[in-house]
Model the fold of this input.
Amino acid sequence: MTFENNLAFAKSLDQQDVLSEIRNEYLFPQQNGKPFIYLCGNSLGLQPKVAREVLGKQLDNWQNLAVEGWFEGNEPWMFYHKELKRLMAPIVGASEAEVCPMNTLTVNLHLLMVSFYRPTKERFKIIMEAGAFPSDQYAIESQVRFHGFDPKEAIIEVAPKEGEYTLKTEDIITKIEANANEIALVLFGGINYFTGQLFNMEAITNAGHQAGAKVGFDLAHAAGNVPLHLHQWNVDFACWCSYKYQNAGPGGISGIFVHEKHFADQSLHRFAGWWGYQENNRFLMEKGFVPEAGADGWQVSCTQVMPMALYHASLTLFEKVGFMQPLREKSKKLTAYLIFIIEEVNAALGFEQFKIITPKNEDERGAQVSIIAKNDGKKIFDHLVKNNVLGDWREPNVIRLSAVPMYNSFEDVFRTGELLLSVSKSLQND
Done:
């Protein structure tokens, strides 16, 4: 498609957008009586209007049923997670048995590494992306130390080549192959939080397995953002948060994936808790942990009803639009238009004020476009916020703009470009 840098064209794209009405299902923050152009769904998604109603129903259940709510009412809490499993599975390309809502992301990452990071003297190393989100770095470092290894020796980071911001798939695979005899685990993000690069998870998984390692992914920035096929790709495990692209509220419940090929493996270690015990016999309170079938057997603590209610509220909207494929089609066009608009701003200024570090290949990015301002980056970001455009700033110098197909419009993108241009010109003249 040939894009145009004008409001009429942006509005025409919105008129053609079959998902445009779903935007009305969300609540936008306001400043000075005006709604924000919200481009920060990569950090915290917007609140679905239905969230208050769904949460209210559970508060009513608590009020009216109290402890009986576990087994009584229209949505007994004992089985509430099963409805979420039905809606979660299409988001990540899995069977219902392979997913489970529980805990928060980093907790789940630790629990899954208990099972899938089993180092030996010969195989103890973990391959990960350089510059991964700190939660992943800290979790991996602590797991390595727990097993008695030095992180400097046990952790292999794959970094972009000098002068580049993103990784090449072939370089990741080469690094895996070069360390094949020593790798216990390959653990990557699905999308890098800083650059917005979408990794080729299928290729990474295949390379890791050929090297004899287990392969897992932190899908914080990928789940609900891009189509995933975890079962088909043969991924061993994954986990994700629900509060970014899945709009389940701040600190929302996490989700896990465990491939069904591991369900019958009795040798797998796991940290057990009562809630992961076989459902039919859980209340017998017997000694000796017997896990529930599937991913549910990795549960430790009692199910979090209120966070699950908020997650459920959001997932129903994913179901309403047909899950990930329609969203992905819009997302590709939306981000392509955002990149076009940023390049138009640079052209109008006569130099590359905004360097795009997110891959321009649509198959290597999700909804996020990361830019580095040549001049006055933080001032520009602050000016955007002051004028009702809310992205986010990441040290040392990146502005992240995430055009989420659920609730962002092409007009949002155009008006963001207008503001980027005007503030850049005003700062030039200061």
